[in-house]
Amino acid sequence: MKLREVHVDRYGPLRETLQFGDAHVVYGPNESGKTLLVESLLRSLTGDRRVAQPRIDESPEGYVALDGEGDRFELANGETLLDRYAERYNFELTPAEFRNVFVVRDGDLRVLDEQAFYRRVTDRVVGIWTGDIETVRDRVVERGRLTPEGWELSTQHDDAAEQHDLATDLLADVEAYLDRADAEDLDAAERACYEAARERREAEAEVEALEAAKAREDYEQLVKTKGSLERSLDERAELPDEGDLDELSERLDDLATGSEDELQRRKTWYGRATLAALAAGVVAGAVPLGLGIREPQLVAAGPAAFGVVALVALAAYRSASNAVVRLGRDREAVVERASEVGIDAYDPPAVRGAIADYREEHDNHAEVIQGNTEVLRQWLDIDAEAPRDVVAEAEDALEARRAEIDFDADREFTEEKLEDARERAEAAAEREGERRETLRDHRRQLERFAERAGGVRFEAFTGEPLDLTVANLGALADLADRLREVVDAIETDADVSRAAATVLDRMAASETEKMTTLFADGEAADVFRRVTDDRYVDVGLTDDSRLTVELASGERLGPAELSRGTRDQLYLAVRVALGRRLMEGRDGFFLMDDAFLSADPQRLERQAEVLGELVDSGWQVVYLTCKPDARDALAETAGADVTELSPL
């Protein structure tokens, strides 16, 4: 297939339409769009930004027209030249291969990624499988966790070398310790420690159950105490006030001395005494008259004396009468006052008895209140002192404590049982501590083994993580088994990989011998000999895919040992030879951007002759340049048409 037309509607500042003959030079000064034209063509022909290495982010708009075997077609809608190769010729060509053979950018004829490229091309045109074999070999080596060189255990893949040493050393130490433990009968010490621990746990569980039962009983007792305190406070509040009781007691004490009966008896006696004195006075006055005594003094003396007595008795009678009346009024007032303060009594003695009863009740409640208040304050750590405040704080404290109480704890609790359980727990803990002290070094060693085992990546090598707690000798023996699995897995993978890699290397070496046949047809050597005026006579590849040339003297050189001009001539010969082999007799084209930039006039002429011969054989060459001498050489020697570009 050959390029016939490129139409660029827009690619950055480039707007251009060009038609190409079999030999065509696109000439223009710098800044005329040649580089943009090459980029646009590469992106349209390959669809690969990396190959084009564009300087503009946008995709080119337009089309590329080609012909092949008499048919003309345009690449559009994302179709590429490589798609056409695959469809028409069943010929696959990668963008990188297309760029390395058929396109020269910025005057640089060198082949990119040279050794790998020659290997791929040789695989394609000669039919060797070195690349595939080496890929498989590399994967085999990686699977065995080996270094690329020497096939030793690598630190790059799962830290195989370090992991192998770690697992091997740890396994040796574990096995030695298991032998020592067997000799010292550490199993028996472990069993004794385990038994003591079991007894301690059982006793502690019993202590916990009994303490839960005790806590429940204490809680319930505190609830009862709070209830009793509340009732006492409420009942005491309903009793007569103690101040009122004191007042009534004082009023009772202030009542007239003597009982009401005695006052009545005294009143009767005084009344009788008055009557008797009056009667005696009458008799005393009548007797002298009866005796004939007429002297007034003598007659009046007797009645006067008894009159005095009668007056005294009358006064005493009246005093007693008044005392009885006052006592009655006071007694009624006391009973009435008692009724006001809540005492139901009919007379002062009953009031006095009721006061005594109420005082006793006050004393009883005071004792209950004081006792319960102190209990609640001490058990619930309450700062309040007033009983009502204590009740309020106790309510909150008990509510908070309620969540901590196990009301299902139905264990029968006694202090004796709790004390016994605590003693048994302490004794078992002491025995366990003694045995643990004996096993302390043993435990530390187990912990060190467990810590070291944490550095081994079991899952990476055996497929399973180490789900194991190294707490006893049995677990340590299990750890030894798992370490053997790791060591065996690493060594087995490495041995198998070494054996497979050895076979693959032999296969690769056999295939590599075919590398030297890539230029065996002599096409590259013939072109290189002509463009160097017979100074060089051969071009070839070493078995490690390195390009070499042979001088007429027989000396072999690499590209780096050649001058820039000669090296460009070499890569021109290589590109022409590889292009012919890849296309297998089909027509193709070369797109060259100032490929002969470093050539002197003689080299330029010889290289132009090679391109002319290439065109004569049916190929197409499109050459872009800003050099008049290159333009003229190709026009004269290769018969190229010339299109001149104007500055953008």
TrEMBL record:
Pfam families registered for this protein in UniProt: AAA_27
Please indicate which superkingdom the organism of origin belongs to: Archaea
Region span, Disordered: 233-259
Domain named YhaN AAA: residues: 1-42
Membrane-spanning intervals of the chain: 273-293, 299-317
> Keywords of this protein's UniProt record, alphabetized?
Coiled coil, Membrane, Transmembrane, Transmembrane helix
- Could you list the residue ranges forming a coiled coil in this record? 186-232, 411-442
Q: What name does this protein carry?
A: AAA family ATPase
Q: What is the lineage of its organism?
A: Archaea, Methanobacteriati, Methanobacteriota, Stenosarchaea group, Halobacteria
